[in-house]
Every structure is written in C-alpha cells, then in structure tokens.
Amino acid sequence: MAIINSYTTVTPKGSDLVLIVDTSVEGNPTKTATVGSLQGTPDNNQVFFDTVGITIQTGTAQDTRFGRATDRTDGSFPTNLRYAIFKAYFENLVLEQGSTYKLIMERWKKGGDRYGTIPTDYRYTGFKRQAGSEGVDAPYNQRPLEIEITSTTGQFFDFRPDLYFSAADSAGTRKGFPRPSGFNVRGNQTPLSSIQYVAFRISKTTNGVTEVSPVLKKLILKGSFTNNTPRAFFLPY
Is the dihedral of CA 215, 216, 219, 221 positive or negative? Predict the structure, then answer.
C-alpha cells in the first residue's frame, strides 16, 4: 500500500467517499461516508464556497425579457409600476444530487437601538437577512427571501423588487412611490428616485444540514418616477 502523501491531491465533491471508523459498532468496522454528509466546523461554509462566484445580468423594467408588471393591490401603490428581474450565472458551483441550493437576498440596514430603551435589541449596520412572513404585514410578507437554484447558467430570479417600496399615502399618481419601505425619508418628502443596497449569498442543504456562503454579490435596487412612469430595477453595485 502506498504512503498517504504519495496519492494525488484533488478538490473533493460532496458525492466523493471517505473512509471512517464506526466506533458505535463492536470491532470498530471501517465504512464509507460521502464528503457532503460531513458537517465540518463552523468555518466550513467559508472553505466550501471560497471559489464560488456569481455574475448577474440586469435588465430594464420595460424589456420584454426582464420586465414584469406589479400585481400589488394594497391601496396607495401605483398599479402601473413595472419592475425588473435578473439573470444569474454561477461560477464553480456544482449542483450535487441530494443537496438543495438557494440564492438568498439580503438588504442593507443601518444599525441602531430599534426600540430606544432595550440595549439588547441593538441592530448592527450591514446586510441583513429579512424576517420571514410571520409577523410581517401584507404585502411585504410575500417577498421571496430565497429562491432555489435549478441551473448554474442563466437562471432568471424574481425577487419582487416592487415589494421593497412603501404604499404611503400621497396625492397624484405617485402614491408615495419610490419611498423605500422600512426606511425614514428626510423631511417626510418622497423623492423622485431612491436606492437600496442588496447582497446575495448561496445556501446548500444536505441531510438537514445547511451551509451558507459569505456575501458573493451586491446590487443596487433603484426606484424611479420619471415621466409619470414608476419603475423598479437592479443596477451594478
């Protein structure tokens, strides 16, 4: 049998096998396990995703490939708004059988004491994964916070950017747009355009164990009201 350091070094896939000693059975028999089934250390996600990248192709809200019409019906919101989805290409990502991969979108939030009196509720500045649908008012509970990755090349992702703007009451056709939802507006005046910063991570779930990558890509979500036309679309960061 060859010495261990004489074997070729490779980058393992989740389906590759490793030898283990089963100490739960008398005699400690040798068995195999897949690399993907090993839980690893807390830093394992950093190692696993360190070569993975994302290239995103954005488009306009008017483009027939990228444009979508809002279906929001929550009162003071422009019903003629169009928003844009985007197309993603994943670098060095292999979709292994038995694992589920998702693209996660996070929004940048400014830190501070959310309630003004409880220090333990302090929120740090940075990209934050948003709360789920529970406890979130409609229609904002319909935001897709993560979408399953089914193709590494040119998959369209619809994160519903129209759900990231407020339906605050306002006179005229603007109806408060493009006031960002969850953000204070200086002087209580709604601007003609606004931007929000968003970031993307990838998650991989295998046998109930989920690994999450570092932030792999950032984009700007812009709301614009030009020529009496409301639009929401993504721009390069």
Answer: negative
